[in-house]
Amino acid sequence: xxxxxLKGDNVTLRPARxxxxxxxxxxxxxxxxxxxxxxxxxxxxxxxxxxxxxxxESKDDVWWxxxxxxxxxxxxxxxxxxxxxxxxxxxxxxxxxxxWGKGYATEAxxxxxxxAFRELNLHKLMTEVDTENVASRxxxxxxxxxxxxxxxxxxxxxxxxxxxxxxxxxxxxxxRGG
Length: 178
Ligand SMILES: CC(C)(COP(=O)(O)OP(=O)(O)OC[C@H]1O[C@@H](n2cnc3c(N)ncnc32)[C@H](O)[C@@H]1OP(=O)(O)O)[C@@H](O)C(=O)NCCC(=O)NCCS
Hints:
Layout: E1 6-7, E2 12-14, H1 21-28, H2 31-34, H3 45-57, E3 62-68, E4 71-82, E5 87-94, H4 104-118, E6 124-130, H5 134-142, E7 146-157, E8 160-170, H6 171-175
Parallel strand pairs: 5-6
Antiparallel strand pairs: 1-2, 2-3, 3-4, 4-5, 6-8, 7-8
Helix pairs in contact: 1-3, 4-5
The structure holds coenzyme A.
Coenzyme A binds near residues 104 and 134.
């Protein structure tokens, strides 16, 4: 399913719209954008339109387009939600490279985390990030994610194996602000 509109100071999370798919085609063709993502292959317009349709209909994903500076800049979501155990896996991409380093991921994660705990009544959010992806980890830690482990030599990229950082945030830790 798509999440509802969530407005922050500089970032808005919103459901997908007609015309969004073409942005993702451009972003996923750029290896600088995909280097830390699990999805590293480029996609066609049709594949991306199908993906958006599928994720909009999914009952165990909540997904948003991220907007800033009046345009779509990326996407974020809560995936593989287990409604009984009240947990899910989070992910994010900022595809517009001129929008990196402006605090947009940090704000998008804050909006997503609040929605997950206050509206979806989830108990825990989990994620996995390349240990080299310092920006993503910093942004996650600001939303309360804590280290639970390192997955060793999990993915192969640019000629070498990379470790993954495993982070989680529990709702009561987040409620206590830390
Ligand atoms: C990783 C990504 C999500 C970060 O988004 P962002 O909007 O640039 O992040 P923010 O601006 O909120 O920055 C978060 C922190 O990381 C720092 N940072 C930003 N870019 C950085 C970089 N290239 N190297 C090190 N630190 C960086 C920021 O300065 C900030 O920390 P600070 O406030 O202490 O200075 C974004 O670059 C992206 O989507 N990249 C491509 C896809 C991807 O890697 N997704 C994440 C997969 S888990």
